[in-house]
Amino acid sequence: MKPSPFEYHAPESVAEVVGLLAEHGDEAKPLAGGQSLVPMMSLRLAAYPHLVDLRRVESLRTIERVDGHVRVGAMVRQAVAETDELVADVPLLARAIPHIGHFQIRNRGTVGGSIAHADPASELPAVALALDAEMEVSGPGGNRRVPAAEFFESTWQTSLGEGEVLTAVDFPLWDAGAGFAVEEVARRHGDFALVGAVVGVRLNDDHVMDAAIAMFGVGTTPVRSAAGEAALVAGGIDADLREVGRAAAAHLEPTDDVHASAAYRRQVAPTVVARALARALEEARS
Amino acid sequence: MNERVRVTMEVNGRTEEVFTEPRTLLSDVLRDELDLTGTHVACEHGVCGACTVLVDGVAVRSCLMFGVQADGASVTTVEGLTPGDGLSPVQAAMRDCHALQCGFCTPGIVVSLTAYLESRPHPTDDDLKEALSGNLCRCTGYQGIIAAARQAADAMARDAGVSSG
């Protein structure tokens, strides 16, 4: 199938992007790397009379270190972030990216596009949620910052308002003594995960000082688990990780689809979390 | 909205100018406007990899971008990777190792592997499987393709060694 007709815009500044989005309202959609949007348009699952391509906006392609964060411009290609020296300081992000599609997809796909697209089975929204990333958003009312916890609302739905565009994501840096891991179960290499988990832990001697657990593919948004994190902090390095996994996955509401049943996802999630935590703890100890 | 727009790009080293609707996929621009039918179109939603081309030197799915997005870019198709005389190392290895049967997926595999091996000259067998994971083949069962990838990687590394020293 072929996409329905649209008018193509390729502005060179965020101000022009915001202007075009304001002018065309809900008829306009920003186009980042297009690795989700273009196939959805080809399958006629999505149609927009106006596409605003962000590819010429240079300011969206920078990666910089700012006050304990690494700020990744929305149009930074995943393949660029995958090997970037500054992004390497955010190990969870760097390690999640190779799980996205295939290298040909990551050559086009962008960090901001994946997060703004908000597919609940994709990796980067879960990474943003686990790390308490903050979204930089520009819109008709100016700029604002949105915590990841308030960004993901449902499948393909975020709290971006009409005419707003994601311009950058700030990923906080963790102190020394941390470990991170990405674990997922997928039917085939490069497919969306049936169930996945991204985790971070930080140790001081035998104490777990910080814990972050986010799961994906298990609901309509990525899911952060305060209960799982609390169980790990309480249990310390000798915590029963299967118990922590069960606590993390206790209130999930996954759905059935052609790839896996909800019951399967509920059963697998605790194991995926436990495996991820085991690897993260091992790294943090070393 | 159906108005055609001008797109100028360098394709296989030649400057090409086409007039195309914004909604036309790069894969269709290459095939229908420029008669470069080596770029094959199968799933048309980014899963199979048959339409893989190089855009500004990196391998991408040409069905996952609009032709208009390639305005100003340099595009290389499988035709552009084929020497005037004979076969490229990847193509020769595909032939030697019986890495194709119907051949429909082959252009995408040749383009993907060429790009991968240029960026990663000494891959392990696992690297090669990872590199091939984005291209579907329904005939071969992949073993011949993996063997071809190994042979091509070794040949390209040898050639690089000769030319550099």
How would you concisely characterize the structure shown here?
Chain A has helices at residues 14-24, 37-42, 78-82, 91-96, 103-106, 111-117, 123-130, 226-235, 241-249, 262-285, and strands at residues 7-9, 28-31, 50-53, 63-66, 69-73, 134-139, 142-147, 152-154, 157-158, 165-172, 178-185, 195-204, 207-216, 223-224.
Walkthrough of the structure:
- The complex is a heterodimer of chains A (286) and B (165).
- Chain A folds into 3 domains: 47 residues, 2-Layer Sandwich (Uridine Diphospho-n-acetylenolpyruvylglucosamine Reductase, domain 2), CATH 3.30.43.10; 115 residues, Uridine Diphospho-n-acetylenolpyruvylglucosamine Reductase, domain 3 (2-Layer Sandwich), CATH 3.30.465.10; 108 residues, Enolase-like, domain 1, CATH 3.30.390.50.
- Chain A is 31% helix and 26% strand.
- Chain A has 10 helices and 14 strands.
- In chain A, helix 9 crosses helix 10.
- The longest helix of chain A is centred in the C-terminal third of the chain and has 24 residues.
- Chain A starts with 6 loop residues before the first strand and ends with a helix.
- Chain B has 165 residues and is of the alpha+beta class.
- Chain B has a 5-stranded mixed beta sheet, sandwiched between helices.
- Chain B is globular.
- Classes of the chains: A alpha+beta (286), B alpha+beta (165).
- The interface between A and B is medium-sized, with 32 and 31 residues.
pLDDT averaged over residues of chain B:
95
The helix/strand series of chain B, from N terminus to C terminus, equals EEHEEEHHHHH
What portion of residues of chain B belong to β-strands? Answer: 15-25%
Task: Work out the count of structural domains of chain B.
Answer: 2
- How would you name the CATH homologous superfamily of the largest domain in chain B? [2Fe-2S]-binding domain
Low-confidence stretches of chain A: none
Q: Tally of extended strands of chain B?
A: 5
Distance, first to last CA of chain B: 56 Å
Please identify the top-level CATH class of the largest domain in chain A. Answer: Alpha Beta
CATH fold name of the largest domain in chain A: Uridine Diphospho-n-acetylenolpyruvylglucosamine Reductase, domain 3
In the sheet with the most strands of chain A, the strands line up as 4-5-10-6-7
Name the chain pair whose interface involves the most residues: A-B, 32 and 31 residues
Structural class of chain B: alpha+beta
Mean pLDDT of chain A: 96
| Helix content estimate of chain A | 25-40%
Shape of chain B: globular
What is the count of DSSP helices of chain B, taking H or I runs of 4+ residues?
A: 6
